[in-house]
Description:
Layout: H1 10-22, E1 33-38, E2 41-47, H2 57-60, E3 64-68, E4 74-78, H3 84-95, E5 103-108, H4 112-121, E6 125-130, H5 136-144, E7 148-151
Parallel strand pairs: 5-6, 6-7
Antiparallel strand pairs: 1-2, 1-5, 3-4
Helix pairs in contact: 4-5
Amino acid sequence: MTEKYVRPSWDEYFLEVMHALAKRATCDRGRTACVVVKDNQIVVSGYVGSPPGLPHCDEVGHLMKKVVEEDGSIHEHCMRTIHAEQNALCQAAKRGVSVDGATLYCKLAPCRTCAMLLIASGIKRVVAEYKYHAGGEAEEMLKQAGILVEYIHDETLEYQK
């Protein structure tokens, strides 16, 4: 007897879509993406990549800069790319699509800058697959703004490169 097919939940479905979109990312340090959803419909998406017309990490390499995190630790970040959340919000602005009240699905929880943009744009819920290594301040800001943040895995994903 065959097992009965179980449809994925909405969260599982949109995370699967996010994974497919991440394949378009052009920085191999963090091939991430996000999907913004309202009323169980995708309204906009974004992935990590350079601004249009500028070279991509996959083509010319990373543009690494040392950054001092809020806990005093120093990490190197690639500054060549725009984060997935930033790209999605730019796409929404270009197309006149409101994300007010929407849910954002992402691989890594938002950084501080992305958190501020999500707050300002009206996002109400974030579903992140993993925590971000420098995300403590961002998580606190989202909480203060009343944005629900849910993690699929309660662990921090470290970059391989």
